[in-house]
Structure formats: C-alpha cells, structure tokens
Amino acid sequence: MVALMLFGDFITDITAKLISALDYQNILLYTGQVDALFPSTNFRKYFSTLKWTKKEAFEGAVRNTWSTCGDFHGGVWVI
Asked: Rounded to 5 degrees, what angle do the CA atoms 61, 16, 7 make?
C-alpha cells in the first residue's frame, strides 16, 4: 500500500529542484549501501552528470568518514 502511495515520487524527475538546492543551500544527502533504488555506488556518478555551481569543488573533494560520538556512519564528501 505504501509503495503505491509513493509511486509518483519514484518516477518524478527532481533534477532541476536538486540543482537549485545544491546551488543555494548547504545540504546533506544520505544514501545507504543496500538502497535498492539509488545505491551509494551510483551517488557520485549521478552528481557528475548535474550542472551546478559547486560541481568542481565536489568532484575535487576528498571523501571523509562521518561519525558521531565515535560511531562510524559512512563516507562523506565535504565542500
């Protein structure tokens, strides 16, 4: 039932909205290793296709670990 209610979100192109957000806001996007629709391995590849003002900085950013209170949560690119 929930999947049917969210179906419109799965097929909606949000590229223009995402580029606008990336250009004007500091945002954190979190992806999971086992995300069936958008696995983290595709994250960097997808962002390389976008045309946004901080693209070069993002592509040159070094990947760092993300943790809180010493607990590792994953990798993060900070620009």
From this structure: 105
Please choose, from the candidates 66, 35, 34, 60, the residue with its C-alpha nearest in 3D space to the C-alpha of residue 47.
Answer: 60
Q: What is the pTM of this model?
A: 0.63
For the stretch 2-44, pLDDT in tens is 777 777 777 788 899 999 999 999 887 777 667 777 777 787 7
Closest among 53, 63, 50, 54 to 18, alpha carbons compared: 50
Query: Can you spell out the DSSP letters for 54-77?
Result: THHHHHHPPEEEEEETTEEEEEEE
**66 within 8 A of 34, measured Cβ to Cβ:** no
Q: How far apart are CA 36 and CA 6, in angstroms?
A: 15
Domain boundaries, the chain: 2-77
